[in-house]
Amino acid sequence: MGWNTLDDIELAGKIVLVRVDINVPVDAGRVTDATRIKRIVPTINDILAKGGTPVMLAHFGRPKGKVVPEMSLRTLLPALEAEFGKPVTFFERPARADLDALPDGAIALLENTRFTAMEEANDPEFAAFLAALGDVYVNDAFSAAHRAHASTEGVARLLPNAAGRLMQAELEALNAALGAPKHPVVAIVGGAKVSTKLELLANLVSKVDHLVIGGGMANTFLAAQGFEIGTSLAEREMADTARDILARAAQQNCQIILPVDIVVASEFAAHAPHTLHHAQDCPADGMILDAGPATVALITDTLMAAETVVWNGPLGAFELAPFDAATVAAAQAAASLTQDGQLISVAGGGDTVAALNHAGVSGDFSYVSTAGGAFLEWMEGKTLPGVAALDS
Q1: CATH superfamily of the domain spanning 6-168
Q2: How far apart are CA 44 and CA 52, in angstroms?
């Protein structure tokens, strides 16, 4: 793979600019979920162990190029120091001499990179300012890698660079899922709208052996095949597009798996009265809220014969019991096969993390990405600027 890791680059005595994602939820000045902070600890610790001085670059919120006091990264210092177990020195806009004066073993944090419009514009002047502060650049923020910003792309082209441990793990997992996967490969794609995942579906049918489509998207495909879907969430105007995707999949020898049975309710509400039907037999006044047990069995059989699964999106209205049944059962099947060493499982994007957490299996997949938009763009086959800039 065409990028350096922390093992490939000399860090001793160097100021190491580290792009991290610590855009964490805060309530009343306190971090309420430190997951993203915890995930950068291995990179910061490795830089320290190799004799480097990590200087973190990050954004927080959407200040739109202006200084917004409540979006200052200073707010995160207590949470950062708790995870690192040592003080973190904060700078609003340092000079290189300020960083050179830091003692050995110090960790520093610079103010919100988005407090200037030059960041999101990837302004060469701002990238050069950042580059002048350090000797080496490390990107550990895959979740921001789809943005060509000064701190994610511009500065990477001006310094020796490498992927941090979190970025490395993400890229290795993604390569195992679609870059150079073990076949057969299954993709599971759910969610509400076909229109938001056209590029994703078009890319997947040329790369995977089986494509499972669930959620509201599946309703659109069922309608496109002439099935009654009642009052279900669907994009009926996308029927031609759905049929085109089905045709392209057939040409690529990609088997598309749609629900063969459906769970139908009269209203979108938890514990709404519901009935089970064949996929072609939805009542005219019914609303499809989940796939049925025969569909889950079909998906499970497909997973049992597979080597790799990449998952994006739930199979039904998983927020509402009992319409979470298909998502939970399929996720548990994938997790069990992963734990048995039979399956490589990579998941991420949108509601996927929430769905897997709901199923209690996010810790049992090979890798679960929290990157959101970057994960989706990678699944769509797009080049991510922040990754491309790490060309070794």
Answers
A1: Phosphoglycerate kinase, N-terminal domain (3.40.50.1260)
A2: 9
Query: Where do we find the tokens 């806009």?
Result: 93
Which residues on neighbouring strands pair with residue 5, listed in sequence order? 163
Whole-angstrom Cα distance, residue 230 to residue 208?
Answer: 31
pTM of model > 0.70: yes
Of the residues 50, 74, 157, 193, which is catalytic? 193
CA-based angle 324:326:328, to the nearest 5?
Answer: 65
% of the chain surpassing 90 pLDDT: 88
Q: Is 373 a catalytic residue?
A: yes
Active-site residue, selected from the candidate residues 248, 373, 381, 382: 373
From the candidates 36, 39, 147, 165, give the one annotated as an active-site residue.
Answer: 36
**Single-letter amino acid code for the residue at 186:** V
What is the distance in angstroms between the CA of the first residue and the CA of the last residue of the chain?
9
Backbone phi, then psi, for 65, in 5-degree steps?
80, 10
Q: Is 350 a catalytic residue?
A: yes
Segment 198-236, tens digit of pLDDT:
889 999 999 999 999 999 999 999 999 999 999 999 999
Name every residue whose Cβ is closer than 8 Å to that of residue 90 and which is 6 or more positions away in sequence: 73, 74, 77, 108, 109, 111
Q: In whole angstroms, give the CA distance from residue 389 to residue 14.
A: 20
Active site residue 164: no
Rg (CA), the chain: 23
E-state strands within 45-204:
53-57, 89-91, 108-110, 136-139, 161-163, 185-189
Provide the residue ranges of all domains of the chain, joining segments of one domain with +: 6-168, 181-379
181-379 maps to which CATH number? 3.40.50.1260
Catalytic residue check, 36: yes
Tens of pLDDT, residue by residue over 151-192, are 999 999 999 999 999 999 999 998 888 888 999 999 999 988
The reply to whether domains 6-168 and 181-379 share a CATH topology is: yes
